[in-house]
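Give me structure tokens for this 405-residue protein.
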Amino acid sequence: MEQVPRIAYDCDVLVVGGGIVGLSTAYAITRAAPGTRVTVLEKEPGPARHQTGRNSGVVHSGIYYRPGSLKARYAVRGAAEMVAFCAEYGIPHAVTGKLIVATGRAELPRLHALAQRGRENGIAVRELGPAQIAEYEPEVRGLAALHVGTTGICDYTAVARRLGEISGAELRYGSEVVRIDRRPARGVAVLTGDETVLRARALVNCAGLYCDEVARLAGDDPGMRIVPFRGEYYTLARPDLVRGLVYPVPDPAFPFLGVHLTRGIDGEVHIGPNAVPALAREGYGWGVLRPRELGATVAWPGAWRIARRHWRYGAGELRRSVSKEAFTEAVRRLLPPVGPQDLVRAPAGVRAQAVLRDGTLVDDFLIKEGPRTVHVLNAPSPAATAALPIGREVARRALTTLNQN
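Here you go.
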């Protein structure tokens, strides 16, 4: 029998992606199996440059998510763990609570259903009338509201950076993956943009906006495509109008929470995001167009099915994107004193939303495995909140892969 030559592996596990999920996974692997050699590849010059560093900074309670789902379980658990992690490492954070406010009668049944869902997820929820809303937020108007006390805010970029520092992993920034050679009997070899080749026994794909492309590079069919949605934000020129966090009642047909107001850890009040199709995976403005990426989105049947199914909703989001007055109108339903002059443009984010071929928006975290690979294929909000339990689950699967080979 021909003897297979011994391979000199550069590491045991290669993690692609230096956002909060990738760095949490590296941290979880080395904690669960000390001595495991982990390398993290990130194409940017530092961590958390995309979804992690461009969100509202909210530590979500878990109230929105279907009971029993990964989002519900991991967000509830993750919120408590995230607050504890920030406290342990001196990372700016606060448990502020938040209001979810119904501004129209049609929203009241959804608000009551949300309260029930929260209780099923083990979350303490207080139902408020108009006068009680004013006790929390004097300038906010609504017919009814929920107060969720476990919601908070933190600096997720600082969390990601600290996870990387304490993970014990080798962090290689400025290293873009351009090719993957996966051989089930031998391992995975990765070529980066600077012509470096790294060999590992297993690969973990936490590439966020490019996770489906990385899965295909590895030879796995992800069964979905990332359709990028840009979330546009403003800051409030009169931050004294808002004390904490104020959200509308979400539409259960969509994974987006609607335009909300968030007093961040920096003291500024962030308003947004809306959700419009991005013309590139990192399309943080209408002027950013990457024809290859846009073409891939347009070629995916699920993208057209979304457009046909939800065109009315999309038209409203587009209108708010191009019209500051329309965006202001949406904000004023919650905060009547606001005028267009109170809104100052802020950096946008892009949500990496997994879409199935039939146009279904994947509404839960999605993790799949292949030979010597683990792929995180849907991890938008509340993935930052849930990063520590997500990281442990991905680490468990990666270590199982190592033990099988």
